[in-house]
Specification:
Layout lengths: L1 H21 L7 E8 L7 E6 L10 E7 L25 E6 L5 H10 L4 E5 L8 E2 L19 E4 L1 H12 L5 E5 L11 E7 L7 H22 L3 E7 L12 H6 E2 L4 E2 L13 H20 L5 H12 L9 H10 L4 H8 L9 H9 L3 E2 L2
Parallel strand pairs: 3-4, 4-5, 5-7, 6-13, 9-10
Antiparallel strand pairs: 1-2, 1-8, 2-7, 3-8, 11-12
Helix pairs in contact: 1-4, 4-7, 6-7, 6-9, 7-8
Amino acid sequence: MATGLKWVGFLMMWLMATTRKVEGRFVVEKNSITVLQPYDMNVGKHDASIANFGVPQYGGSMVGSVVYPDKATDACKPFDGDKPFKSATSHPTILLVDRGECYFALKAWNAQQAGAAAVLVADSIDEPLLTMDSPEESNDADGFIEKLEIPAVLIEKSFGDTLKSALRKGNEVVIKLDWSESMPNPDGRVEYELWTNSNDECGVRCDEQMNFIKDFKGHAQILEKGGYTLFTPHYITWYCPKIFLGSSQCKSQCINQGRYCAPDPEQDFTEGYEGKDVVFENLRQLCVHKIAKEENRSWAWWDYVTDFHIRCSMKQKKYTKSCAESVLKSLNLPLDKIKKCVGDPDADAENEVLKNEQKAGWARVTW
């Protein structure tokens, strides 16, 4: 069993790195930081949020010396010189930079190019930790996002100020970045989540995501059937403010009287499918997972999602309830139970499944 879990750990490290490319996580994933030197700063662990880019050392740790640049502290431009922050000691350099003025990912890239082994981004305001996301499709970012190889984390403003103060006093600050607890494993299983979407008309991001799901499906099902993993899919949804409930936009993008909404797939309210169609199918896919899990076959979610994409795509004008139900029947999934879980999308009532999704969601930022 130990050997199996070790193998799963390596596979999950690959999974987490891959899923960051196709879809951002909306649950803030954290690791811990401990100040080892100066000794008077060793007062316990500090939380840091793991970026949605770069390569965290899942299951491991890194000890390094913190460096704060004398200038260009936002790291928005390449640093002068040939790898000016490459460590000359036994401790690698962990570069501390300030939030703001450019993409988080660009800061990490400039730090990596300057020889840093990791980067800490100090928040500029007092707020709960957020996930630093990679920018959406951008010509500026296309050249380096895939080349990022160092871990990047966001730290709270107060902790950043403490580190800067110690460095200004001339102290050597040595810290330990620890990712050993960043892979939750209840009951000896690796737990992971995937934020996804049934919309297949949102461009390259949607295509990359579906390709990932198709490619990983077989591995995911083997891991789930073997009891090595606990997988949970999530779908983003928001609500329509009461003042706009009567608007055509809310009516076309929302179900349950404005409680649960998704954007129009084509960004055109006059033709094609509507946002509420996407919410309805997202809900159905959530219910597939919920009911299949209750029947001890949660891996059936992967079969349904991939089959639905092939047989019921928007591109083929088959993104419909009837097509979805034909897929459910072909997979011997309990149609009546799934219908009951989905409920009435026109009802002026809450849907517990989507309500829980809204609670699970968390903001992500690129700057």
